[in-house]
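User
Please review the sequence:
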Amino acid sequence: MAEAHQAVAFQFTVGPDGIDLQLSHEALRQVYLSGLHSWKKKFIRFKNGILNGVYPGSAPGFMLVLAGVLSYSCSVFQPLCLCFCSRYMSVQKQMLVGGVMVGTGLWIAIIFSMRTVLKGLLSWHGWMFAPHGKMTWQIRLWLILVNIFSGMQTPMLYSFQNSLPHLPVPSVKDTMRRYLESVQPLLSDEEHRRMQSLALDFEKNLGPKLQWYLKLKSWWASNYVSDWWEEYIYLRGRGPIMVNSNYYVMDFLYAFPTHLQAARAGNIIHAIMLYRRKLDRAQIKPLMLQNTIPMCSSQYERMFNTSRIPGIETDTVQHMSDSRHIVVHHRGRYFKVWMFYDGRLLLPREIEQQMERILADTSEPQPGEETLAALTAGDRVPWACARNAYLRHGKNKKSLDTVEKAAFFVTLDDTEQRPESLDHYAKSLLHGKCYDRWFDKSINLIVFKNGTMGLNAEHSWADAPIVGHLWEQVLSMDPVKLGYTADGHCRGEPHPNLPGPQRLQWNIPPECQTMIANSLSVAVALANDVDSHIIPFSDFGKGLIKKYKISPDAFIQLALQLAHYRDKGKFCLTYEASMTRLYREGRTETVRSCTMESCAFVRAMITQNQEEKLCLLTQAAKKHQQMYRLAMTGQGTDRHLFCLYVVSKYLGQDSPFLQEVLSEPWRLSTSQTPLQQGELFDLVNHPEYVTTGGGFGPVADDGYGVAYVIVGEKLINFHISSKCSSPETDSHRFGNNIRQAMLDMLNLFELDKKTLK
């Protein structure tokens, strides 16, 4: 094979005339180009590290300060140099060096002053609580100051990291008050009095001691929540991450760029690698609220070259600084595909060429290879044991390292997925056959036989908006910027000398195959229990909701409350994820969407008159917005309670209050997947390029998981999941209740408008 010949840079033979060296110039050329690429990347990272380190300072600013200092009076700075260079420099040079030293010091002082002021400005969040559409003079002045102290140059992805404030620790008293308020609609009067007693005891006795440790951590660490959240919520979980933790993202809802599986993979893989290059160079624009207020970008760091490594007690996240290959799975075989040749990234048609070679390969899987990835889908302890005992030796170690150190994982799925069967499509992305995705990889790209595709993402390293940002850019590039030929192939020509993919080799003993089979049985049972339902709700969207001066997110959350009450006849503890990326290394906070106001509105929909319903809807929406803003600004309840619980465990002091709070099940778990880069999609002229969004598995055995994405002005996609084994849930029934709740709530405004006329 061509790659086997080019893998050896030189050969030699010993004869009567001496040693005869046979150099492979092509191999040496590839070695040279590979090293050149590596050094370029190191230089770019070094340069970006300096630029980020001095932001909001810049080279022009430095030259301006230096010129101002030197032009003022060089003689002032001569004494600075006398002590160490008066014997080696003239007076003029001494004055010049002194001026440079003072100018540099002044520039550094200005940078740190600007950064300190900016951090103070970003710690103020009064702008978020102002009435919608109203801009006070205080907010205008604040925005002007933020713009001034953010610097004049275009920021890179990590430019604002050192200027972001630390997540504040709420007071124990405020957290107790908010918690008791959140559970009031779910408890009887007697149960609520009991919880009040437990909360008061905690607030007076154990709470202040635990709070002291949290305060100490908040002063020392970048974020007092995020590292514990990653470790205890994700990495220490010993159950399967498939369905329970990993989530999925879908393709376009209506567009089908090509029917060729290899071609679609070629364009998408190339687009992902282009995004990775921009990420390596920090050329991705940081997400800015109102184009002014920066959000934390730390979660982007581990998007690629990352794998979750199983352990007996806890998993770890392994991140490589670089990876030049991907691993492709097809019909139970694993292939290593290099992404670079001739010192450059492979073009889409060249990647398609590699995918075609894999699809044409008729070799059979080696014993145990076909279902190997089921280990990543089952319980974590058996996977850790199998990995340590059987996969860390000989050829298995080399192949496993290739998988775990790949940029990302690709599955060329041998099934077809179509939009008329979105429910089946969602289940395939969520779990597939339970052995054809490597669930430990940060990103799994799945390309189906008919060219449809999607992602499956591991959750510990980052939250869904980070993957969503990548996916939006990839989808926007695929049909328009990259495009396809008339017969569905990628544009361009195949490479005549491109080395083919390398088949990974495994030697899996019978004992390991037994462990694989056990994990597969666990995973299949879990997958078969998932009931998924996707609703593209197109009756109306955020455009109409905003006309009635209601937050679209609040409107949807109230619809979910109404739908759940109609579905089960009761209220439940509700989880809505909000972000805390206004703070350094912020991740998420919980908005407890079931409130006294939302329950009053739902009851009114059953019994009250039209005017009463509309009034209560407005009040409930305002309450929800208030709670969402509190969560975003570090004044939520659940992350604080979680960290207090972690400290109590470290101290070996049990708290009946915390134990009860953290054992409460979230029977309705919800999350909005925001469209962050709407400017990438021209939905007016190309409405077919709407995204379907993504979803996740159910959190509680008897509950629902609901993800939703607001696309454009007229479409909201709901992704609903539950467990088939629960007699209380039915995803299709709940979907019908959501649709009806949305229509009934809109009808309140429509009827009110007719009454006013």
